[in-house]
Amino acid sequence: MTQKPPLRHVLGAFATGVCVITAQANGQIIGLTANSFTSVSLDPPLVLWCLDNRCERYGVFAGAEAFDINILSSEQSPLSDRFARGDAVIGDHEGLLTLDHPLRLKKVIGWLSCVTHDTRVVGDHLLIVGRVEAYDYGAGEGLTFFRGRYGQTHMFG
Question: Is the pTM of this model over 0.85?
């Protein structure tokens, strides 16, 4: 009898995009890397992402009234690493944020500004549903995550 692989390995075989969720707490902008992002509805415009109940930034995002989803370009894996590992506060001096919107990261290939529509604990995660208030996208290849490694999308003509 063959031994089953850990569930995490099977789930890692599903390629995803990578985004950084940003929210404001106590006058600071906080970031968190997520690949558990998906669309829910076009009418009304709703998206969803999942937050681990053990995350050290749980209180920030579970209590946020608004957040941005910043879809990373293939050149932004260092940002993904940073916000995955806990260096979460974005300082004004870093120049990472756009001037016209305090939660939007520069050079992303897409963004969605959301207000929290609903939250629900399911298993060991909090599902956060956001109502999209504004959005846009730009050129570039997306950052992907597959079997624990980064990759990129390839544009088709």
Answer: yes
